[in-house]
């Protein structure tokens, strides 16, 4: 039995909307707290009062709710939920979700949700079998959305075929099992596995006083180390110079230059099941390191740089390599550059984020990621780096076990 879980139920406009009332009752019977979101068309099929009576909570249907705190009710609801299920999900709402449209509360919640999302389709059999609908469903699957049903049987229109909403009891069972696994995942998803993480910036010395570096704080890498520990992993953290305290029970290896980080990572890579390259490693280092402080003399000065070894690519070239995850911090064309890096370096997964914008990243407690792998991708919306790290570790574990 699943107790004290928050379930957000989205109801879209189809005749099967009446079955959603039974779904609320079953969720409540399992001890869950349920809140219901309805589309405008769903209001034509069943009264919000029914869901309010069954759930004990107000029903939401307006995107901009002036009564909600900060008038941001959709964000509050999205953060509240442990799981978000849309049942019934019409062909229209599935199409909107697959294209990332957000013109009402339900579709906006989908984009804002950081919890697992499930969709239970319900529609006419011809609509379900339409190639466009199937493409939309496959797209949702690639984005990590769980699809429950539909079933084959008699439909309200009098036809017979696939498209019938799965029975509420089956949907409830499916979600309860998923929530129970979710509750276990922080301690079991990487249980007993060795995980290697590199974090922070590197410093490339110019002389005894100066060096080349970047704005990386190391917060994301250190958060990933803690999240991997929480997931049961044995963690080795190769860290550039940061002002952070490493999580307890990690094996910390401190380095300064890109060359030192390369040596440390390559020496440990084959001992680990997963390598996460979260460090912001310098691409270039000075060819000549002056033994004495460089004096300010000429109005202009030239600096000759050489390309550093590519840690991520070199790990990916190893025989029996670990599951290799890279990061891409970009100021423009994020998706294009990230997917190119995924293919060019032959890695298993890449987590891309914007920098130079008011969207988290360097020197921030917040971040958002667009994660790509060879057969799909998933967006992790803006949140704290600790919460984002947990989501990314769970996604890595999911792809690793797959």
Report the span from N to C terminus. Answer: 26 Å
Q: Order the strands across the largest sheet as they lie in space.
A: 12-11-8-13-16-17-18-19
Assembly state: single chain
Global Rg: 25 Å
Task: Label the structural class.
Answer: alpha/beta
Q: What's the helical proportion of residues?
A: 25-40%
Helix tally equals: 13
Number of strands: 19
The CATH topology label of the largest domain is Rossmann fold
Largest sheet at a glance? 8 strands, mixed
The CATH class of the largest domain is: Alpha Beta
Large-scale geometry = elongated
CATH homologous superfamily annotation of the largest domain: CoaB-like
Proper CATH architecture of the largest domain? 3-Layer(aba) Sandwich
Mean pLDDT: 89
> How many discrete structural domains?
2
Estimate the strand proportion.
Answer: 15-25%
Taking pLDDT < 50 over at least 5 consecutive residues as the criterion, the unreliable ranges are none
Overall description:
With 402 residues, the chain is α/β, with parallel strands linked by helices. It folds into 2 domains: 6-185, Flavin prenyltransferase-like (Rossmann fold, 3-Layer(aba) Sandwich), CATH 3.40.50; 189-286 and 299-401, Rossmann fold. It has 13 helices and 19 strands. It has helices at 19-29, 48-55, 73-80, 91-99, 105-112, 125-129, 131-142, 168-188, 219-230, 258-269, 311-316, 334-344, 385-401; strands spanning 6-11, 33-38, 83-89, 117-121, 146-147, 151-154, 160-164, 194-199, 204-205, 211-212, 234-239, 251-254, 274-277, 284-286, 305-307, 323-330, 349-354, 366-373, 376-384. The strands form 5 sheets. An 8-stranded mixed beta sheet has the order 12-11-8-13-16-17-18-19, sandwiched between helices. Strands 2-1-3-4-5 form a 5-stranded parallel beta sheet, with helices on both faces. Strands 6-7 form a two-stranded antiparallel ribbon. Strand 18 (366-373) and strand 19 (376-384) form a beta hairpin. Helix 4 (91-99) crosses helix 7 (131-142) and helix 9 (219-230) crosses helix 13. The radius of gyration is 25 Å and the shape is elongated. The protein starts with 5 loop residues before the first strand and ends with a helix. The mean pLDDT is 89.
């Amino acid at each position: 039995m699943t107790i004290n879980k928050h379930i957000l139920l989205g109801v879209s406009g189809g005749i099967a909307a009446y079955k959603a009332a039974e779904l609320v009752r079953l969720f409540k019977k399992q001890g869950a707290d349920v809140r219901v979101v309805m589309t405008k068309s769903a209001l034509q099929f069943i009264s919000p009062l029914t869901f309010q009576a069954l759930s004990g909570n107000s029903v939401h249907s307006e995107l901009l709710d002036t009564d909600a705190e900060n008038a941001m009710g959709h964000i509050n609801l999205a953060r509240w939920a442990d799981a978000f299920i849309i049942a019934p999900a019409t062909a229209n709402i599935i199409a909107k979700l697959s294209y990332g449209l957000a013109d009402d509360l339900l579709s906006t919640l989908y984009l804002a949700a950081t919890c697992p999302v499930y969709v239970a389709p319900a529609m006419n059999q011809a609509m379900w079998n339409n190639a466009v609908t199937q493409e939309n469903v496959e797209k949702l699957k690639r984005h990590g959305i769980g699809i429950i049903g539909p079933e084959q049987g008699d439909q309200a229109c009098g036809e017979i075929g696939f498209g019938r909403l799965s029975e509420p009891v089956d949907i409830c069972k499916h979600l309860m099992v998923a929530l129970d696994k979710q509750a276990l995942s922080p301690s079991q998803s990487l249980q007993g596995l060795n995980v290697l993480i590199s974090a922070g910036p590197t410093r490339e010395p110019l002389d005894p006083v100066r060096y080349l570096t970047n704005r990386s704080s190391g917060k994301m890498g250190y958060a990933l180390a803690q999240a991997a520990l929480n997931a049961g992993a044995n963690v080795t953290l190769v860290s550039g110079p940061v002002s952070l305290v490493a999580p307890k029970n990690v094996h910390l290896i401190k380095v300064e230059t890109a060359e030192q980080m390369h040596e440390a990572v390559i020496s440990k890579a084959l001992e680990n099941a997963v390598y996460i390259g979260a460090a912001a490693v310098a691409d270039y280092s000075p060819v000549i390191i002056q033994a004495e402080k460089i004096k300010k003399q000429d109005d202009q000065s030239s600096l000759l740089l050489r390309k550093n070894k590519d840690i991520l690519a070199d790990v990916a070239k190893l025989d029996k390599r670990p599951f290799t995850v890279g990061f891409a911090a970009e100021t423009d064309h994020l998706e294009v550059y990230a997917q190119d890096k995924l293919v060019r370096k032959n890695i298993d997964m890449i987590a891309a984020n914007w920098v130079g914008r008011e969207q988290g990243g360097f020197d921030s407690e917040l971040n958002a990621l667009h994660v790509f792998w060879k057969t799909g991708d998933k967006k992790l919306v803006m949140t704290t780096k600790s919460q984002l790290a947990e989501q990314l570790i769970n996604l890595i574990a999911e792809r690793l076990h797959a």
